[in-house]
Amino acid sequence: MTNPAIGFDCRYINPDSLDGIGRFTIELFGATSKKLDITAIISDPRQLEFLPSGTKYVRLNSPTSMLEPLASLRLNAHMFETVYSPMQTMGSIGKKFRLILTIHDLIYYSHPKPPNNFNPLIRLGWWLYHKSFIPQRVLLNAADEVVTISNSTKKLITENKLTKKRITVVSNAAKQLTVKPLPVEKKIVYMGSFMPYKNVEELIYGASQLNGFRLVLLSRIGQSDRLRLESLAARVGVAIDFEDGVTDEEYALHLSSATALVHASSEEGFGIPVIEAMSLGCPVVCSDIPIFREIAGEAGLFFGIGDHKQFAQQVEYAAAHRSQMHASLKGQANLFSWEKSADALAELITASKR
To answer: CA 47, CA 61: separation in Å to the nearest integer?
Structure first.
């Protein structure tokens, strides 16, 4: 662990409950470590359990610590040439290395409610941070390079003038799911949270225009959300199943046997389930928003939010043409991989080394 040249911030891996940032960190670190000699920056020894065996590491404060603004001063002692973080909140005061920060999306500016697991002080800071673009601009402009996960977010960053620094796209990607092909059932499946901007209610209204289809919600769900959606489904006559969380194997089985994966989000950070579905040849019926257009491309089937008839028509098209769509779906999914993302990051890091 002496004089590492490249530091990779792995402190956003939550060993107790992996979220999107944690999975992004784990997968990107693993793929990049095959290309470059990188050192993990951790705050909890348990984070190493998610990284390749033998990973070099240094310890630093938790990213939610009050010491975070001084993180770079502490990292200077390790003689890094470049530090990459999968988030944008690492303190840059006094840094003596090139700093690459990541901004995934701008959703929390529209929906600033903080995660419930944060303590009250952190929740207040989160809320205040997302009430203005000014703190974001300060952080991003203090970095040497900025990374984002999609061209859609890159466009939003540029439109909102969040940074003057160069922006590089290092795409999010999906884990490889494998399963034997199964007979296709008259069911449509949803994988995602139940935040308001996900518009899960629209999926129920859309399903009400279909004949004989079940809507299967795969994700873990709170009791209040479940009761609300059950009541709506009963009112409009939709058969609905709540899986309340599935294993990777169960998830793959659902995608393999579903007529389509469906999403009605008005905003989205990326949409990993869309790639996961396409990789198994499962059609995707998505709301017509830029990020879904970017990810699903010409292989996707799109509908206007609130257009329940168009939603039903796209599901029926998927049912009639699922086998013919298989090749285009797989081809689109193959555009995204952790190896390709690691190539993009490795090229950026190598170019930015002094």
So the answer is: 13
Structure tokens at 180: 């034997």
Residue ranges making up the domain that contains 233: 187-333
Rounded to an integer, the average pLDDT of 58-78 is: 93
CA 349, CA 269: separation in Å to the nearest integer?
A: 24
Q: Could you tell me if 34 and 150 lie in one domain?
A: yes
What is the pLDDT, as a whole number, of residue 117?
Answer: 59
Task: Tell which wins on pLDDT, 262 or 353.
Answer: 262
Please give the structure tokens belonging to residue 308: 């329940």
Q: Give yes or no for residue 354 having a pLDDT over 70.
A: no
Cα–Cα dist 352/78, whole Å: 18
Residue 176, domain member (yes or no): no
The two structure tokens encoding residue 285: 């019926």
Copy the structure tokens of residue 279.
Answer: 């990789």
Number of domains in the chain: 2
Query: What CA–CA distance (Å, rounded) separates 257 from 138?
Result: 48
pTM of the predicted structure, to 2 decimals: 0.88
